[in-house]
Amino acid sequence: MTESIHNPLTLYLTRLAPSSQLTMRYVLQDAADRLGFEDTNLEDIDWHHLQPEQVIALVAALREDGYAPNTSSLYVNAVRGVMNEAWRMSLISQEHLLKMRTVKATPGSRLSQGRNLRRTLIREMMDVCAADPRPQGLRDAAVIGILYGSGMRKSESVNLDLAQINFQERSLRVIGKGNKELVKYAPDWAFAKLTAWLDFRREQLKEGEQDDSFLFNRIRRGSHITRERITKHAIYYIARQRGEQVGVKIMPHDFRRSFITRVIEEHDLSIAQKLAHHTNIQTTASYDVRGDNERRRAVDRFDL
């Protein structure tokens, strides 16, 4: 605690969610190396001495190395976050802070690398899970159903507790980005997969044992259901393994992308924004990963 009071970098990191701390520490370490501090411990760097021209040089180096604009923005925001804490600690003046804030990341954008998972593909994945006689079959179907059916992030899914679920309303209360409490909804079929998994899990309990407070358990080899909560890495493994079984490379965030894309297709952008809980509607629009065939069909409707 004493260290965080006297170090703007540590104070900045402690303000982040645990899932973001590792990423931003890596970003700041790479930024420090590029700024000439490769031989200095990250916590020992005098970040408040950093000047705008140094950050401008950092952005230029990232651009020269082919880093995408979003990645460049991540670096700039990380440095800016540390400088904000330095200002709060009276290590720099407001004028210095404002000068640092004028430094912009590399402009531009890149096409999304995400995949739009169609309903037929999700059905195939559910069939693969149903054919798996191990407990993993029921659990993985429930995980995929909740991710695809509600559009929640993998970090939100691993933190889900039974107390946050309303089975009658088919709602899930989660803590999202920015420590915001959100309510998400999932369809009947997704809740049916979740109920099947939870019923099976309860059947495995010994007499007198209480059910776990969380939703998804880690399962070891030998089909042993542990009393441990599943991890984000396990969600990644589930998506990759079940995707390979249907011949497609899938990342966990593809479920969220596909959910948002489907809502945009079948309803409109504003409803998709509300269900995704995005502050900026442009963020929601960036999740639209409809394929080239849909775009061609839209253009082909403009016949003379």
UniProtKB/TrEMBL annotation:
All residue ranges annotated as the Tyr recombinase domain in the record: 112-301
DNA-binding keyword on record: yes
Single Gene Ontology BP annotation: DNA integration
Superkingdom per UniProt: Bacteria
Keyword DNA-binding: yes
GO molecular function: DNA binding
Protein name, per record: Integrase
Source organism of the structure: Pseudomonas trivialis
